[in-house]
Every structure is written in C-alpha cells, then in structure tokens.
Amino acid sequence: MRSPTIPQTLAQTSPVSSRPDEDVIAALHVRLDALERRSGARALAVAVHDTETHRDVRRHADRWFHAASTIKVAILLGVYETIHHGWLLPHSRLHVRNRFFSAVDGAPFRVLADRDGNSEVHAAVGKTMRVTDLALHMIATSSNLATNLLLDLVGLDTVQRSLDALAIEGIDIRRGVEDERAFEQGVNNRVTADGLVHLLRIIAEERAFSPELSREMLAILHAQEFKNGIPARLPATVRVAHKTGDISTIAHDAGVVYPPGRKPYVIAILTEWDPDATGRSATIAEASHAVYEALTEGTVDG
Amino acid sequence: MGEGYRFPLRVVDGLRLEKALRDALLPGRTVLDDAGHERKLPRYFYEVPTWTSAMELRLSPSFTLSEFIQTDVREAAPLRSFPRYVPCAITLTALCLERFREAVGTYVHIAANGGYRSPRHALSGSATPHSWGTAVNIYRIGSVYLDDREAIERYAALARQELPGVWTRPYGMHPGETDDHLHLDFGFVIAAPRYAPDDHLGFDADRRVS
At A106, phi and psi to the nearest 5? Predict the structure, then answer.
C-alpha cells in the first residue's frame, strides 16, 4: 500500500470569493429530493459545510443511521488522541490477533477474512504491525481486523471521550465491527450526517489535537481506495479525503472535498436501502455531484 | 560450540538494574499464580543489546533469540527499547522447542507477546511462565494456523508426547483456555548460569568467569 502524503490544508488554500445564492441551494434540495425518490432509497441524508462560504446544507442531517464503516473515522480520532497524549507512539507495534469479545455478552468472535476488505492485515496474524499502518488499513481499505485491533487497544471510552472533548454530537460508538451478537441485539454504532461533518470539519480545520496530527489523519483519509461514492463523478482534479461505509442496508460516504482554487467543503451522504436494492454507490455519486455543482458553479479553476 | 565458546550475552543481576527496569522486571519478587501459589520471579537476565543481536543469536539450530522476545505496545515502556532483558531460562526453553520442531518436521512460529513477557506486560496478569521465559504461544506450524480445536489438540498431544512434563493449555474459549494458539509451558523454572553474578557478594559477571 502506498504511503499517504500530507495533503493541502484549509489554511493553505487561497481564498476565492463565492457564495451560492438561496436559489442555488433551493435547487440543490429539489435535486436531492428527486434523487431520493428516483433511487428507491429508504432514506437519503446530506450534510455539507462549505469552508469557503461558511454556508451549510442540511437535508435530514440529524437523522440517525447505522454507522457501518464510517465509525472508523471516530476510531481514528481516538487512536490519535492516544498518540497526542503520548500513550502511544506512531511507530508503536501491536500484536495482530484475530480474537475479540462481543460488546453484549463478552463472547469471543473473529473477523472472517473473506468478509474483510483487506488481506494484508490478516496475513500478519501472529506478528506485529505499526499502529499507524493499522490506522491506514482501517481507513484506506476499511480493514475490519485493523479496526477491531485498534479499538481493542485504545478502548471505546477513549474514542467517546475524544468525541466529547471536541463537542461532537451525532456519533455514537458502542462496539467494534463484525460483532454479530451485538448486531442481532440492536447494539450498533450510529451516526448522523451532521455528526460526521462536524468531526471531519475539525480534522480538516486542523483543530483535532494539533495541526500536525490533524494533517496525519487527513493524509490517511486521502489514501482512501474506495472511490465509487463521493469522488466518482467529480472532476479528476478534485481531491477527496473520505471514508465509505457499506453493509446490507446501508451505504455512506463522508469526507472533505478539495476543488482546485477554492477552499474545501465537508460533506456526508448517508443512505439506507432495502437489502436487495441496487444503485447505492451511483446515488451517492450523484448526490455528491449535485452538491459540487451547486457549491462551485462558476467559481472553480480549471 | 567447543570449550572456548562463551555465550555472547552478558548475565546481569536484575536487582542491580536501574529502578525503572527493576519495577518492570520485578527481579526475585514473589507473585501469585492463578491458583494462589507463590512463585518467585527470575533474578538473573541476559542483556540483549540490540534487535540485530537478537536476530543473529541462535539459541538452537532453528530458533533465534528474537523470536522469543517480540512484544508489542502492551509491554512495560522501559522494556520496549534496548538493551532488553530476558530470563536466563530462555536457553532451556529454546532447546525444548527445538525438540518439538524436530518432531513436527517443519517451521514453528511463536506469536508476538507469546515468548518472554515481563510481569508488567498488560497481558501477564497473575504469574505466568511467560515471565520466566519458559512458555511459548505457537500460532502457526508450517502452513497450519493453530486456530481450531483439531489443530491445537493434535499438536498439543504431540508436544506432551515429545516433551515430558510440558503443560499445554486446553482448547476452549473461556479464561484459562485457548482457541487461537498452542501454549507450551515448562513451568516456573529459574536458571542461574554458572557465571551469573554471585548472589550475596554481587560480583559482576566478568569477574566471575574463568
């Protein structure tokens, strides 16, 4: 896997005046309403904060969804809090062991390799890996094994405390991933579009612990390998630091979008579906494209 | 290894190490095991100067020292950097494991945190022979991962056959059991090499070696 590079930050982008007028935002809402109806999604929630205009777009933004893998951004925050406090070093090594305990009854469970998005971490079972490498796998290829290893190390309380310390509401972490016993009993991680945007905005604005650690988290988010959501229909010159989330009835994507020549915007697109529904990624990509057009119309270089 | 051979690692008296290391190694201290029995921790350690030296030092034909001291962030902080310290019984463990390796006829892989770990390691809990350097967790033999009942019990039986007195942790998912490795355990063995510092006078190793 390639190493993430430090991305351009908010502070480094050149300010370009633009302010979508009310008509543009109203038209965006109409487009999103039509998209939701046409796609067959049970729910489509969108939250956007534009750091260029300080304008927010909110559509069902406070609706709670199963978090799926978007919860990994919160776990990333918790890992970096432990680094910030010196409890962990970035190069600290962690034993890769595929054995975890359910949040509901403590029963042991494993992350099945054929249900995981990453084989590299599974291949390291019995050995050790660096904390930051595991964090990269957790985000870039959505490794469930890396996620549970990191959460097991830092603890649920640390992650929740990190969120609370930054006054982030709308993210509720209750367990690791692939905990089927917890899932069956309705014990799930939850997010709102508002919550994810708030978290990503703090990281993008370099207010998560320190500018250096914020940039490291952003670099990891920039290494995302699943690009069929938010970035799919954006121009190739647009960089996106983001995290996807998919389970049977859920498809999400949330991240920071960097159009060239203007400040970025933070976006979360959360969707819920019937289990046999199709077109999930295409719907997210279309919603992302609609937001991009509304926010950047006539203001983007190139 | 003829008469002129000298084991390359210095033996140190744990009681003479700096306080942070003593607090992590607890040399000679008594701790309780799972059954409430008192067990006295090792006092003498080999000093391992670098990771490279651990990788280069063969304790037996098939095992280097590095395989027995790979720990993670859960190890006590003073013991995560070099020089590191490992109980002198580690050489005896390596010989036993070599015998096991001959019996299985293929590579034997020791898990991280599965060789020596200090009594202050987050996984150590009550007294465990891992803190004596006399237990190993094997997660893989050849291409077989020991993560199911069949594999664990098959190799545990072979170990008991080939290594008289060895204890193997039973298969299971409850405390005291194992479902993702084979635990081989030679008990709370303390080794003090002939050239270890004197117990009472505290002479250093170099002065005692003839």
Answer: 75, 5
> Which pairs with CB-CB distance under 8 Å and at least 24 residues apart come from B125-131?
B126/B31, B126/B32, B126/B33, B126/B34, B127/B31, B127/B32, B127/B33, B127/B34, B127/B39, B127/B41, B127/B188, B128/B33, B129/B185, B129/B186, B129/B187, B129/B188, B129/B189, B131/B41, B131/B42, B131/B87
The beta-carbon neighbor of A126 closest among B73, B109, B173 is B109
Inter-chain CB proximity B109 and A125 less than 8 Å: no
Per-residue pLDDT tens over the stretch A89-142: 989 999 999 999 999 999 999 999 888 877 899 999 999 999 999 999 999 999
Contact B112 A92 (CB under 8 A): no
Model pLDDT, residue A15: 39
Show residues of chain B in contact with A110, CB under 8 Å: 147
Mean pLDDT of chain A: 92
Provide the CATH topology of domain A69-189: Beta-lactamase (3.40.710)
Task: Enumerate domains of chain B plus CATH numbers.
Answer: 10-190 (3.30.1380.10)
* A-B C-beta contacts closer than 8 Å: 42
β-sheet with B44-48: strand ranges across? B10-13, B44-48, B84-87
Residues of chain A with CATH 3.40.710.10: 1-63+192-302, 69-189
pLDDT at A18 over 70: no
Contact B179/A at CB under 8 A: yes
- Is the pLDDT assigned to residue B46 strictly greater than 50? yes
Q: What is the pLDDT of residues B2-32, one digit of tens each?
A: 566 778 999 999 999 999 999 999 999 999 9
Whether the per-residue pLDDT at A243 is higher than 70: the answer is yes
Asked if the Cβ–Cβ distance from B140 to A126 is below 8 Å, we say: yes
DSSP β-bridge partners for residue A243: A254
Domain spanning A1-63+192-302: CATH superfamily:
DD-peptidase/beta-lactamase superfamily (3.40.710.10)
State the Cα–Cα distance between residues B15 and B19, nearest whole angstrom: 9
